[in-house]
Design brief:
globular; three-stranded antiparallel beta sheet; Pyridoxamine kinase/Phosphomethylpyrimidine kinase domain-containing protein; kinase; transferase; six-stranded mixed beta sheet; single chain; UDP-N-acetylmuramoyl-L-alanine:D-glutamate ligase; ATP binding; alpha/beta; 8 helices; 21% strand; 9 strands; 267 residues
Length: 267
């Protein structure tokens, strides 16, 4: 029997904690084969992003074509897309893809560096969101997409999730990691009106680099396995929380270190 296959289309993180590298680690840890398309190369570690090199849109397009023409992909995740040209190329190549599409609207790195050009935001909204089965913004990303201030309460998170639904995705997962308080709350709002809340104790660690990438990749992996959306988010939420709890075991870098993707395989 064919094993489930997921494709990640995102940027490369030379430090290994986020982007393509985090996606492939999460997918592998969960038991899904991961293929990849690189949109940009970053010179990056746990402290800062020191350089970003955008790949030509035709090279991004060629990578997608090469993968989809040969490999049966069950689900796709979009991460760092960086520019309008890349977004247009991705949208064109995925026009015939009918499987689950998860969009993690990567905009700013953990160190504060911009990973999505301002001019590209409208392209994401117009060309990609209507195709998404799930959009996974954190609080700053949701606010930037809506051109509003960040949600402060669960009620405001639900309201912003519902507003983002009007842009076309079938569901929106608003992630509360940037909020304060002892409990971290994520809220899944779906077009059918259902709302699911996922909570976990906030972990006292600075090693949270790549949490958004890991979360969306884990969801995508579960969707590739054929799991329903709410269950896929529930699984990924637990997987990520455990990866954060185990993050301090890795001792990687001097800044925001990565989560432990393989906490279930090795300590």
């Amino acid at each position: 029997m064919k094993k489930p296959i997921a494709l990640t289309i995102a940027g490369s993180d030379s430090g290994g904690g986020a982007g393509i590298q985090a996606d492939l680690k999460a997918m592998s840890a969960i038991g899904v084969y991961g293929a990849s398309v690189i949109t940009a190369v970053t010179a990056q570690n746990t402290v800062a992003v020191t350089a970003v090199h955008e790949l030509p849109a035709d090279i991004v397009s060629a990578q997608i074509s090469a993968v989809l023409s040969d490999i049966h992909v069950d689900a796709i995740k979009l991460g760092m897309l960086f520019s309008s040209a890349i977004i247009t190329a991705v949208a064109y190549q995925l026009a015939q893809f009918t499987g689950p599409l998860v969009i993690d609207p990567v905009m700013v790195s953990k160190s504060g560096d911009v990973l999505l050009q301002d001019a590209a935001i409208d392209a994401v909204i117009g060309q990609l969101l209507p195709r998404a089965c799930l959009l996974t913004p954190n609080l700053p990303e949701a606010a930037r997409l809506l051109k509003k201030s960040e949600a402060k309460t669960p009620r405001e998170m639900v309201a912003q999730g519902q507003q983002l639904l009007s842009m076309g995705p079938q569901a929106v997962l608003i992630k509360g990691g940037h909020a304060t308080g002892d409990i971290c709350t994520d809220i899944l709002v779906q077009a059918d009106g259902s709302i699911h809340t996922f909570e976990a104790p906030r972990v006292d660690t600075r090693n949270t680099h790549g949490t958004g990438c890991t979360y969306s990749a884990a969801i995508t992996a579960q969707l590739a396995k054929g799991q329903g959306l709410a269950r896929a988010v529930e699984f990924a939420h637990t997987y990520l929380h455990t990866a954060i709890v185990a993050a301090d075991q890795l001792l990687v870098g001097q800044g925001h270190g990565p989560v432990h993707h393989f906490h279930g395989q090795w300590a």
